[in-house]
Structure formats: C-alpha cells, structure tokens
Fold this sequence. Notes:
GO terms for molecular function: ATP binding; tryptophan-tRNA ligase activity. This is Tryptophan--tRNA ligase. The protein is mostly helical. The chain folds into two domains: 5-189 and 299-337, HUPs (Rossmann fold, 3-Layer(aba) Sandwich); 210-294, Tyrosyl-Transfer RNA Synthetase. The protein has 15 helices and five strands. It has helices at 18-31, 43-46, 53-73, 90-99, 104-108, 111-119, 127-130, 132-142, 155-172, 212-220, 241-249, 253-265, 270-297, 301-328, 330-345; strands at 5-10, 36-41, 80-84, 147-149, 180-182. Strands 1-2-3 form a three-stranded parallel β-sheet. Helix 3 packs across helix 13 (270-297).
Amino acid sequence: MTAQRMLTGDRPTGKLHLGHYVGSIANRVKLHQRYESFFIIADLHMLTTKNTRDDIARATQNARDMVLDSLAAGIDPDTATFYLQSAIQEVGDLNTLFQNLVTVPRLERVPSLKDMARDAGKDEMPYGLLGYPVLQAADILCVKAHVVPVGKDNAAHVEVTRELARRFNHLYGEVFPVPELVSAETPTLVGTDGRAKMSKSLGNVIALSDEPADVRRKVMGMYTDPNRVRADVPGTVEGNPVFQYHDVFNPNRAEVADLKSRYREGRVGDVEVKEKLATALNAFLDPVRERRARYEADRGLVDELIVEGTERTRRVVRQTVFDARKAMGLTGVYTQLRRKAERSRKPAVTTA
C-alpha cells in the first residue's frame, strides 16, 4: 500500500518566524516522517499580494531561507520533498479543472481573504486572491495529500479543498483523497506589538534565525499591560502577549506560575518578566540556530533539495492531472477527434 501523503508549505516572502512555528511548523516536524511529505514553496500564491519585479527577484533567496528555516526547525532533508510551485505548470491545469466546481459567493465567504487584501494595502480584491483557495486546493490535491497541517488562517482554505475533492469525486469518480486538516495546539501567536498576529508584513515578528541579541531587543520592546505604569501596580496576565509567549515557549512551568502570581500582585516588574522570556526564547532557538548554521555551511544543499524535489513532484503531478482528465473524459475528446482526422486523411482505396 502506498504511504499516505502530507502537503504543507509557505509563500517565499521572507524568513519563517515563531508564528509559523506554532501555527504549523511544529506539526510538520512531528508528522513529516509518518507521511510521504511534500513542502511547497508557494511563489504563485505570493503573487496575489506581492507581484512587483523586486518581489519576484527576492523570491529565490526567500525560497532558500524557507528551506533552511524548515531544516533548522527539525525537518529531515532525507525524508522531505521541497518544490517550487511555479516550476510545475501542471498545477495550473488542475486549478483550471477545479475553477468550475466552486462558486464566487462560496469563495467570498472565506474570511482570511479580506484580511490578506487589507494587510497588502489592496482597496479591491484581485481575481487571483479570490481564487487563492482554489489554487491551494490544486496544490494539495495535485500530490493527492491526505493530511494538511496549517495555521488558523488557512483552515477555511482547506475546507474548500475538501469540498472540491468531494465534488470532483462525486461527478467523475474517485480520484482524490479528502484531506484532513491537522490543527495546531496554538492556532495563532500575537505579534510583538500586541495588536495583531505575528506577520512579516507588519514587522512584528521574531524570526527563527534571529540572533540572541535581536531576540532580547525585540522582547524588551514587546507590548504588555498598558495600564501598568509601575512595577508595584497589579497587572493583567490574561491577554498579555509576554505571558502568552511564556505559556508557549517557557518549559519552566513553575517559573511561569511564579511570574504570573507576582505580576497580578504587583510584586514583579515587566523587565524581569521580559528578561526571563528572552532567556527562554533563546534557549528554544539555540538548537534551531545551530542546525541552520550546519545546513547553511553545506553549500549547494538547499538548491539541490529544491531542484530534485521539484523534478520529483512534477512527475507525481503529471500523473495526477492525467488521472483527473481521464476521469472527466477530457482525454477521450481529443483522442476521438484525432483518430477521425487521421482516418479522413487516408487515401481512398481504388479498385481496378
């Protein structure tokens, strides 16, 4: 029996950060050796919000950084297939086949699309952004993925994928598995500004590759309880970004409990709370940095992984597109036309 497959990935818009880690990377690390795992570098999805020549020019290095960050986080290069989305044109064929199986009102109900347009400074939604979930369905189903570990923002997208798989199978026969969404234990991580989720476009991130001094600087500047003007004023723990990070990244539960108790009672200052958070974060990131440096020193490794993975994925996708076209009857249409044309071109047999 063929191993079940996992599909996940990111847009090459910059280095990966702690928000990516809690949203999906932690699950990827746990799951990637249980499944045949494909990691998409989604540069076509990047074009929905970042499509200048400069954006595209930066995608090459961003792709390398994404793979390095993934390896640094714990993905085994020997059991993972990284591939560049735009290099596999057949994904566009599958996207075309899916477009007529979903309605505009259904796509307009996907909540994250308006947020993405707003964050990108778009006054109106581009056609490509509205169709983002359909192309994402093509990404997932082109490798016939069974599981998709994603963050909270993409959960509604995966539901569109599930609907499209079911609809296609109902109309044309069983071709695609209906993929399962694997949710994160921590769906989202608020940014260091405390106002929105951690996002590269908002500049409120702590990158997986940040140096210890940068992590400390960002932590010391984090938003906290705005009503707390002195250390002896009782503070609010609930909803406080600094304590949210402690809950996720500080394994010393006794220390976290003590900090929360003293914070509520006005017996600890923000500086101490942040200092201990910076220490916990750097302890978490130290092995990530070490792995990244080791893989980065292996010159050519990342480029080889992407190229070899893309070639392998292309073979898988070509078979999937053939299976889909055959199920729909599209391969038979041209075959019948060609055969009739060939018969009509044969010279007539004359008798003496």
